[in-house]
Amino acid sequence: MFLSLASAALLGAAQVRATFIPTVSGTPQLIGNVSDPTIDRDSCCSARFGSRELWTCRDSQPYANGVPTLPIYSSSASWTEFSSDGTPLIQSWTDAAGNTETGLLCSGDNYEEPFFPILADECDTNTAGACSDNTRYVIWPNSPPLVTSEDATTGIIEAFTWITEAHITDEFVTLVADPAATLYQITYDPSVNGDSTGLPNVTTVQENFWTTDQMPYGTYGGVVVDDVAYLYGQNAAGTVALAQVAVGSVTDKSAYQYYVNGEWTSTIPGVNDTDIAIANAGAGGQGTFYYSSVWGLYVWIGQAGISIAPDFYITTAASPEGPWTEPTNFYSAEYVTESYTLQAHPGLLANASENAIYLTYTVNLAGEYYTPLIYVQWES
Ligand SMILES: *[C@@H]1O[C@H](CO)[C@@H](O)[C@H](O)[C@H]1NC(C)=O
Ligand SMILES: *[C@@H]1O[C@H](CO)[C@@H](O)[C@H](O)[C@H]1NC(C)=O
Ligand SMILES: *[C@@H]1O[C@H](CO)[C@@H](O)[C@H](O)[C@H]1NC(C)=O
Ligand SMILES: *[C@@H]1O[C@H](CO)[C@@H](O)[C@H](O)[C@H]1NC(C)=O
To answer: Signal peptide: which range, if any (predicted)?
Structure first.
C-alpha cells in the first residue's frame, strides 16, 4: 500500500516535470533601461563574460544634439557591470535628450564600426551594409553570444554568433527567403581588453557556414550544457530545428550532428525537410534559450510569431530535443508602441540558484529605441 502510493507520487512528479510551466511570484519589477546614452540602438541580447555582461545589438547610431545621427552601423557591443552582491549594477545618468535615466549603464568603444564585420560581398563600403540599388545586407545579431569556453586562469573567453546574411529591400522585403549564415567568433582577453572601454575581438570564421539550402543553426538561439552546444535554427516557414556539436569543434562543420526524425545524424538535412521540426521550441518570434539549474530544465523565453506586443512566452523541456511544453504567456509589459526582440538574460542572475530571470525588449518610439529591463521571480 505504502509502496504503491510512493510510486504513484513519483510517477506524478515525473509527469508534472515533463510539462513544467513555471508560475510568476509577485509582480515583475521594471528596473529601468539598458542604455549607452551616446548610442541609439536597436535589439540587444546579452551573455555573461566573466565579471561583466556583454551586450550585442543591431543597428546603432551616435547621438548629436539629442537626436540620432549618421552613421548607422549594423551592430554594436557593450559591457554592463555588477554590484559587489552579484546583482546587476543599477545606475542613473543623463540621457541624450537631457533627462535622468535609470538602469544598466553600458560602456565600450565601438568607434562607429559594426561589431560583426560586414563582408566584401555584403555592400561593405559603408557601416550599414547599404547597397547602391537601395537594398541592404542587414548583418544583425538575433541571439546572444554563445559562450563555449572560459579559461579559469587567464579569464580568456571564447564565444560564437551565427548571423544570417539577410538581404532586404528598402521596404523590408526579404530577397532570399532562407539566407545563408556567417559564423563569427568573439574572443575576450581581460589582460588585453579588460577595461571598461575595450570590447572583445570579432573574427569571421566562415561566410556561408550554413548555405541557403540548410537551416541557419544557431541564429534562433543556442545553449551550452556539459560542453555540448545545442543550436537552434528557424527557416522562413517558421520551422525550428536543432544541431549539436562539442564546444571545442564549433568551427568544424564536419563535427556537427542534426536532430532528424527523432534521432541524431551526421547527414545535414535540407532547410525545408519536414522531419526536422521540433514542436514548441520557441513561440515563433525572437527569444532566448538557456538552461535553468534551479528547474533542471531547458528554457526558451520570447515573443509569439507575428507580434509587436511585449507579451513574454515561456516553454520548457527536460532535454534540448524536447518535448517542449506549449508556450504560455507568463508576463505582458505595458504596451507603449512597437515592441520586439524579447530576450531573457540568465547571465544577469547572481548565481545558479536564484529562481528568477531578467527580461528585456526593444521599444521603437518613432525611430528612437529604448530597452526596458524587468526582473521576474518564480514560485519555488
Ligand atoms: C527609459 O527610456 C524611456 C525612453 O527614453 C524613458 O521614457 C523612460 O523614462 C526611461 N526609463 C527610466 C527608468 O529611466
Ligand atoms: C584584438 O585585436 C587587436 C588588433 O588586432 C590585438 O591587438 C589584440 O591583442 C586582440 N585582442 C584579443 C583579446 O584577441
Ligand atoms: C524553402 O522554402 C522557402 C519557402 O518557405 C522557399 O522560398 C525556399 O526556396 C525553399 N528552399 C529550398 C532549398 O527548397
Ligand atoms: C544567490 O543570489 C541571490 C540573489 O542575489 C541571493 O539571495 C542568494 O543568497 C544567493 N545564493 C547563493 C548560494 O549564493
So the answer is: 1-18
Q: What are phi and psi of 15, to 5 degrees?
A: -70, -40
Structure letter (DSSP) for residue 251: T
Question: Quick check: pTM over 0.90?
Answer: yes
Ligand 1: which residue has its CA nearest to atom 4? 370
* Residue spans per domain, the chain: 2-378
CATH number for the segment(s) 2-378? 2.115.10.20
Q: What are phi and psi of 177, to 5 degrees?
A: -55, -50
Nearest atom within ligand 4 for CA of residue 351: 1
Are 292 and 312 in contact, with CB atoms under 8 Å apart? Answer: no
> In terms of DSSP H, where are the helices of the chain?
2-18, 190-193
Nearest CA to ligand 3 atom 10: 272
CB atoms within 10 A of CB 344: 25
Compute, in angstroms, the gap from residue 32 CA to the centroid of ligand 1: 7
Do residues 200 and 108 touch, judged by C-beta distance below 8 A?
A: no
How far separated are the first and last CA of the chain, in Å rounded? 30
Parallel, antiparallel or unpaired: strands 100-105 and 24-35 = parallel
Backbone phi and psi for residue 275, each to the nearest 5 degrees, phi listed first: -95, 20
Q: Work out the number of other CB atoms within 10 angstroms of the CB of residue 2.
A: 6
Q: Answer whether residue 90 shows pLDDT above 80.
A: yes
Instruction: Provide the pLDDT for residue 78.
Output: 98
